[in-house]
Fold these 4 entries.
Entry 1:
Amino acid sequence: MTARRILVVPTLAGSGATAVCLGLVHALDVQGVKVGYAKPLAQPQPNDKADNACDLMRLVTTLDPPLPADADTLRTHLGAGTLPDLMELVVAQVEQV
């Protein structure tokens, strides 16, 4: 059996990527496919609220996804020009799943 990764990328803010992922996880689960979920980078939220996509995935599935890197971590790496370090964090998180 070969492991596959599916990357779901939103085209606009508020486009429903979390809902798409929930539906995809459910559809694959119904088919008997073992699935995991990772959202490596948190979406910046107004008023510094937390991105709750992983919490929602935990609530409605049996999955336990790792917490995404928060918006401050993202801003720090982008501002410092340390994009390779940020990508290492992303790869490490996805490898956990």
Entry 2:
Amino acid sequence: FFVSLFFYYKTSGDFYILLLLSTVWDFYIGRAIYRGKTHNRKKWLIALSVFLNLGVLFYYKYAYFVVDTINYLAGTQLKVVDYFALLANDISGGNFTVNKIILPVGISFYTFQTISYSVDIYRGKIKPLDRLIDFGFYVTFFPQLVAGPIVRANEFVPQMALKYQLNKQEFGQALVLILQGLLKKMFIGDYIAVNFVDRVFSNPMTYSGFENIMAIFGYSLQVYVDFSGYTDIAIGLALLLGYRLPANFNSPYKAQNVGEFWKRWHISLSTWLKDYLYIPLGGNKHGEFRTNINLMATMLLGGLWHGSSWQFVIWGGLNGIGLVFYKYWKRISPWAKSSHWGAKLYGIALTFLFISFTRIWFRSETMHNANAMLYQISHSLDFSLIPTMIVAYKGVFSIMLLGFIAHWFPSKAKSSYQNWFINSPIWAKLAIVVIAVFAIYQVRTSELQPFIYFQF
């Protein structure tokens, strides 16, 4: 528990105090919910837990969004002030910054984790933990603390009472995941981001339509290898420590429709939104129109979870529209029900194109940049220049091609090389680790790039 706190202190400084406060109040609220003698009392307590957690999340993550919106609509000149920092300075005589609000690393992840704990106690799915340090260990478990996967108490807590075990198979699997995650993030993700994707998205008007299109595809690859790379490392580290975390990705770009994509992408978040937002809103139990409204609301709020800007709202809305559209499309489309390989490829390609298109807003820092990218694609797409650009960006495009081939590689083939590594002698594992680290070192960027989902 204290090692995890120190880990969080090294990533977020004094925001470890906020993590501790969240841990303490949810521990005692959870116990109070379990001991509540009336249903009404339990409802008030769960409302308190949700209010505290979402209140803190809203304050740190959406204060600028709300103030900017009010200023735009009302023509006011309101300024953001960190009143928590101001209060801390008054109490402790500290010197916290008060003229801007800094987003604590991982707050979106551990907030959803503690909310699920209280809600599951309220629903009678789990019993509260007896010791604060046990609950603190669950909340702060360092491999997945700052960027997921979002782990639920009923998946993690029972493992705390088990005797430590790690067999040869699991040791090999953990090494595979850690190496795979590092290679994904640093060999592919960082390289294409620094050398191409970031440059185009920061100033799309200075690049051609073709370069903008390739940057969109590049970002789809980057966000996958970076985020899934972190998840691989987190799951691998947890496994070495004797804990089994749930999978967070399942080859999402093999999805044949938008609905399937969201069952394969950021699984811990999409299932959390389904269980704690979509179903409580009514799910699909109140007619087709209400189901569509619930679906759109879930995706819009899922978009806002990622960040406080209208670009994320648009991204969530587009994905919601995609899900609703596919519901009706599959009823009339002969391709949707076909098992022919051509229909499958068509579905995979169309889904990938749609998901990549929505990421224009997901990645763009401003609405102006998103509009500029759309303009360049529609007005500056000179096909005669494409061969020249392919040669000019041969290094970046080669790495992108390698990344997509690796992703779309058959699952059985991937399992074969993983099993070979797992069953290889220890000297062979050591040699492969050394080679992999050497390769990563050779392609590292000049400055260490943070994991992409730290911003959320």
Entry 3:
Amino acid sequence: VVDAHGLGRLAVAVARTPGTAIVTILGIDGTGASGRSVLIDGARATACGSGCYRAPAGAGPVAVSVDGRLTRFDLPATAPDATARVRRATAAYRATRSVVFDETLSAGVGSSVTRFTAVRPNRLAYQTKGGASAIVIGARRWDRENAKSPFVESTQTPLDVTQPYWTSISNAHLIAPNVVAFLDRSLPAWFRLTLGPALPRQMHMTAAAHFMTDRYVEFGGPATVSPPSR
């Protein structure tokens, strides 16, 4: 059973089995952060590889201390497999006509909030609060630095815009009602999804210096993406 979140600028992940927890710590460069002082439920953890630490863990939430900074993971030691449920949600996401979501992104210092609108097959627009925006339609895109700047047109490799950020699923478990957590080893990144009947309602992603929360506003609605007015 896996989960992860940011601790300052570090990505800290936990993999649990009954009686044991393995903590993986990634630095901002994406490599394992070795040589840290790590406690798991108050016990000194032993090194188990690059950025890897292992120690006994109790049955409740896992308390992890990294160089004196404490964080906690509220996940069970055992949980039902949720691979099929994540796959169904992924297929529904890919099949939807459009997606509108608000994304909060941080690297551990400050954060940005961006509204994304994606319309199949290759139309995407985003607006960062107080910052840059862009429109992508097929092989063309338009960017501007802020709301007062003109759009600048350029070429773009067409995007498949209704694809979720995860591409492979491992260690998927139902850790709370309608909440699944899993690892995408290809990135690598850890995901926590809050699911509705078919589609995600919220996603949290943890990767090296990349802590992201998406709140889905609408799937399959009447959203449109058009070139900027001249």
Entry 4:
Amino acid sequence: MKNRHTLMVNSIILFALASISSFALLTAEQKPNVIMILTDDQGWGDLSLNGNKNLSTPNIDSLAHQGAMFDRFYVCPVCSPTRAEVLTGRYHQRSGVYSTSAGGERLNIKEKTLADAFLAAGYKTAAYGKWHNGMQGPYHPNARGFEEFYGFCSGHWGNYFSPMLEHNGKIVTGEGFLVDDLTNKAMTFMEENREKPFFVYLPYNTPHSPMQVPDLYWKKFKNHPLPQRSQKRENLDHTRAALAMCENIDWNVGRLLNKIDQLELKENTLVIYFSDNGPNGHRWIGDMKGKKGNTDEAGVRTPMLMRWPAGIRAGTQVTPICSAVDLVPTLMDICGLKTPGPLPLDGFNLLPLLKGKPNAQEGRIIVNAWNKNRSARNQRFRMTRPGKLYDMIKDPGQTIDVKSKHPEVAATMKFAMNEVYKDLVLLNKDTDKRPFYITYPKSQITQIPARDGSSKGNIKRSNRHPNSSYYTNWIHVDDAITWEAQSAWAGDYRAEIYYSC
């Protein structure tokens, strides 16, 4: 390489030259199939079901009409923490997740996932889409209970049309628009495993940026007047692209539901639909305050729909507050699973609420946190970090502090916000000593992406957000890129660098 050129390093991939042994599959009697659809940066207001007249999402809406709609379902303010809580049933701070990149998105090795529990119960397991809880073994989805994985492991991907992806650790090229491709793969898996119980985790990558969507959907929204808008300054083209992405998601959900019908699996298949955080921009969100990244109501409230004809009455309304950590204990009950691991769960079983039984969680308080932002929500009020209390029934926009009118409620909420952190071991970039494992014995290929590296000298990262970034300006021989990595298995390996000049 001549010094005058700039080297852009995307990632390094190590290939084990030795073969890896496979494991025998478990068998189990037929139980409900589960399809969990998790969208990325889709706000509560991004469905026609919730009153948004800017778009139409009939297929997603049908899940509520034919099953259950959760009125107040809460997740984390950003991507990887929500995914960690969904997979473990535990607060993300317990599992080592404190960031969305550079290693802070990884689930601790000691954590067991929902997929581990399904696999142990004889289910076929697959994940298609955005993983965002660790790339290298033993953090990779194939090491966390998923027999099949197709997608990408980082939190952000720069190209949605036939991009570089991975299939069970091997680098492949995608086939067309990514969400369509992921849906195709999921439907093929369902068809191949129709005679067995299966768990399909489908974490779509949209409407997260980049705002890329097929022309068919963009043309509809390109000149859309958007009669419903955010009260704050709104990037209208960003909103148009996001809503176009949401209609594409709806089309793909319709294809999934049709496939379930064709396979005659509708009656005993539980379909779950929700998002990982609030909207990725100012757009219509009802009367609420907030967006992705903050702990106000709209930053952490998401649609949550469940359809299971064999077990959930059509038109069921669940009004008590619920949380992402509740999904593991709920699915344990519905599917007869054992606790994923020895670590205690933080969530509640929602099946009684789905069955219309009295609410046993009347005094529940859900705490939402990200970085220095923190808030708490009970059935009526939300308290934010400065100690302000809002009546969410009368004031969803959080405009009037009612702490002086409800001092006992305020004291209880403040106590809960502090108490939940007493037994948490909080990691950050300065205290995280976990290495990146390479040459992991159960992984034939290890990716070492640019986002996990550190640069020396004049080398620059292409984006201040490490996900989907690359290094550039490598023009001096004394400069270097390093990874704090640990080799977990001795052997001969071949390294490949992805770069361009």
